[in-house]
Specification:
It contains one helix and twelve strands, in the order αββββββββββββ. By secondary structure, the protein is mainly beta. It binds copper (II) ion (CU).
């Protein structure tokens, strides 16, 4: 018979040892290291925002980022950017983002990114926003996105947007 106190003690221990609490804005999930999740601050009234991070896969097995949800956004999609008819366009990656074995995959402005849609409120620089990342094999981890300045990588608003999945 296991006492509920004992169960609670274990739960607490797991919570305290959970990877999200370790080093400075870097998270470990199995053999994956998630580096510096951040989101771009948005102007008032904006309903979409971009968010970025890196995933280093130290195992010899590929994994895949299949789902992301971020607090305050109705939906979050994993986008790629591609050149089409001379214009940069973004498209959701229907099957998720591959995280190949032994490599570091970067989501960054102008490349793969997370797209927050249906924002309840603007993202303000300095704010922290919780998110859940789900990988096909490694499972789910909670991370915190730091909201950073709007500037630096202009032009996202000018990019054409399509919700037609492409992989
Ligand atoms: Cu996008």
């Amino acid at each position: 018979m296991v006492s509920s106190l004992f169960v609670r003690a274990i739960a607490l221990t797991i919570l305290l040892l959970s990877p999200g609490t370790v080093s400075a804005h870097e998270y470990t999930l199995g053999t994956l290291t998630i580096g510096h999740p951040w989101a771009r601050a948005t102007p008032a009234g904006a309903k979409v925002a971009g968010a970025f991070l890196s995933v280093e896969n130290k195992s010899d097995m590929p994994d895949r980022l299949i789902q992301v949800s971020i607090e305050g956004a109705e939906t979050t999609k994993i986008h790629q950017m591609l050149m089409e008819d001379g214009m940069m366009k973004m498209r959701p990656l229907a099957g998720g983002l591959d995280v190949p074995a032994g490599t570091k995959t970067e989501l960054k402005p102008g490349s793969y990114h997370l797209m927050l849609m249906g924002l309840a409120a603007p993202l303000v620089e300095g704010q922290k926003v919780k998110g859940l990342l789900t990988f096909e094999k490694a499972g789910t981890i909670e991370v915190e996105f730091k909201v950073e300045a709007i500037g630096g990588n202009a032009g996202q608003a000018a990019h054409q947007h399509s919700d037609v999945p492409q992989n």
